[in-house]
């Protein structure tokens, strides 16, 4: 099990990393059908001065590339080299999924629904178990980067539970454009972190199989603000707050397509809309049908379905709504 001893020596995955050292250690995931090993690089940077251990992960879903780009930038720019403490970066947790441009593990399971895993379970469950046993114990603070799935574009946001005081504190420091109160999902990585007493921020931004520079910048800037607050960010990095404080979203609802067809979105993700405002059109391919989609509530658009075609019942917009309306639904 990973730990830091009384001499501030970090032992992780069978290796010892001294204060002031950096290392890349591979977590052996499994083997391909060809018996070729698939390994997950774990990038570790340590200060000579003791301090917190920050664990930064992305790619739990292999097709969510924005998170991978955020962590890559943290490493390539040297932001992950702390003034105090330790920063552990894992840009691609689900390497299998990344290789296949797939959300799931090869066994068809969603890695983010099998934590904390089991020693003798499915491939995904075994990997989650090894991760929780061999890496997570040493972390004091966790940041996990995700995107929307299935062509659904998420506005840059931090997700926390409403009753999580530490989460609220650090979400305010991260200061993403939006902070979305959401309950933890059973057997997710976030839930496991909370059960183990780890403070965790979950970042969502963009969509799967897509790289968005604005989303990446939001993730990198927010991480730098957290590092600065912890005293871990080197002075050479300029860390500025955005012009507006994070917008809190307590309740939300999905708008669904009333018809199947081609969808033409008229509003950008993150914008505020009024009830009844024209936000999209659904048409047939033959020029015979045209349906105007209007906002069902006044609120912020926090997710947009960017697929060019939709079926009746598909989720097309995610809107924030007042608490009173949420209770009435």
Domain module tally: 2
What sequence of helices (H) and strands (E) makes up the elements? EEEEEEHEHHEEHEHEHEEEEEEEEEH
Q: Largest sheet at a glance?
A: 13 strands, mixed
Give the CATH level 1 class of the largest domain: Alpha Beta
| Structural class determined from secondary elements | alpha+beta
Strand content: 25-35%
- By DSSP (H or I, 4+ residues per run), the number of helices equals 7
CATH topology of the largest domain: Aminopeptidase
N-C termini distance: 47 Å
What is the CATH superfamily label of the largest domain?
Zn peptidases
Rg over CA atoms = 21 Å
Poorly predicted sequence stretches spanning 5 or more consecutive residues: none
Number of strands: 20
Report the CATH architecture of the largest domain: 3-Layer(aba) Sandwich
Percent range of helical residues: 10-25%
Protein name: Succinylglutamate desuccinylase/Aspartoacylase catalytic domain-containing protein
Keywords: Hydrolase, Metal-binding, Zinc
Organism: Gillisia mitskevichiae
Cofactor: Zn(2+)
């Amino acid at each position: 099990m990973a730990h830091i001893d009384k001499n501030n020596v970090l032992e992780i995955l069978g290796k010892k990393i001294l204060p002031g050292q950096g290392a890349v250690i591979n977590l052996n995931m499994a083997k391909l059908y060809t018996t070729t090993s698939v390994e997950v690089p774990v990038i570790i940077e340590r200060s000579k001065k003791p301090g917190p251990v920050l664990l930064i992960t992305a790619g739990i879903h292999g097709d969510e590339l924005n998170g991978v780009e955020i962590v890559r930038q943290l490493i390539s720019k040297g932001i992950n080299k702390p003034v105090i403490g330790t920063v552990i970066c894992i840009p691609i947790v689900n390497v299998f999924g990344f290789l296949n441009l797939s959300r799931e593990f090869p066994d068809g399971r969603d890695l983010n629904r099998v934590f904390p895993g089991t020693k003798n379970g499915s491939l995904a469950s075994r990997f989650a178990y090894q991760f929780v046993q061999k890496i997570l114990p040493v972390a004091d603070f966790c940041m996990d980067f995700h995107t929307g799935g299935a062509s659904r574009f998420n506005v840059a946001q931090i997700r926390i539970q409403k009753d999580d005081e530490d989460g609220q504190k650090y979400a305010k420091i991260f200061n993403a454009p939006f902070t979305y109160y959401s309950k933890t999902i059973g057997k997710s990585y976030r839930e496991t972190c909370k059960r183990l007493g780890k403070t965790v921020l979950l970042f969502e931004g963009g969509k799967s199989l897509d790289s968005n520079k604005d989303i990446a910048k939001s993730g990198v800037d927010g991480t730098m603000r957290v590092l600065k607050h912890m005293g871990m960010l080197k002075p050479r990095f300029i860390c500025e707050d955005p012009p507006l404080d994070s917008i809190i979203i307590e309740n939300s609802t999905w708008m669904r397509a009333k018809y199947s067809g081609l969808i033409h979105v008229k509003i950008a993700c993150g914008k505020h809309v009024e009830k009844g405002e024209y936000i999209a059109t659904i048409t047939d391919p033959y020029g015979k049908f045209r349906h105007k989609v209007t906002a069902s509530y006044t609120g912020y658009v926090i997710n947009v379905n960017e697929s060019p075609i939709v079926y009746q019942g598909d989720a097309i917009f995610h809107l924030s709504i007042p608490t009173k309306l949420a209770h009435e639904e």
